[in-house]
Amino acid sequence: VQLQESGPGLVKSSETLSLTCTVSGDSVTAKYSGWSWIRQPPGKGLEWIGYISYSGRTYYIPSLKSRTTLSRYTSKNQFTRQVNSVIPEVTAVYFCTTLRSMVLTFWGPGTQVTVSA
Fold it and tell me: 68 near 82, Cβ under 8 Å?
């Protein structure tokens, strides 16, 4: 299983950030699968953001729920994260992962997102 994140790299404050994870070797609709986003801000630890399940159900950590949307594109075997009105604190390395039985099994290499003022 391989995952690859893609994103703009640099985004301005108040703009919308869109990140995409392309999956190979597995399917975003595989039964009981989950697809997750993790971030690591500069100098800090890993933080789980949320996930989208094989059926399209989503879960977000409460602090990010208001501005974050997780979606999936089954025809492209991709899942995405959109953040509205980004702020500098969104700056981080973002990882997409598989989620099976509550274990983050496979990870993408990560993509850097920097929010400029």
Answer: yes
Are the C-beta atoms of residues 93 and 42 closer than 8 Å to each other?
no
User: 85-97 in b/e burial notation, b at 16+ Cβ within 10 A?
Assistant: ebeeebbbbbbbb
Confidence of residue 62 (pLDDT cuts 50, 70, 90): confident
Cα 112-44-11 angle, rounded to 5 deg = 30
Residue 112 CA to residue 93 CA, distance in Å, equals 4
Q: Enter the tokens of residue 107.
A: 């990870």
65-90 residue pLDDT tens:
778 999 999 999 999 999 999 999 99
State the Cα–Cα distance between residues 65 and 60, nearest whole angstrom.
5
**Where does the pLDDT of residue 10 fall: very low under 50, low under 70, confident under 90, or very high at 90 and above?**
very high
Asked if 27 and 78 count as a contact pair (C-beta separation under 8 A), the reply is no
Mean pLDDT, rounded, of the chain = 94
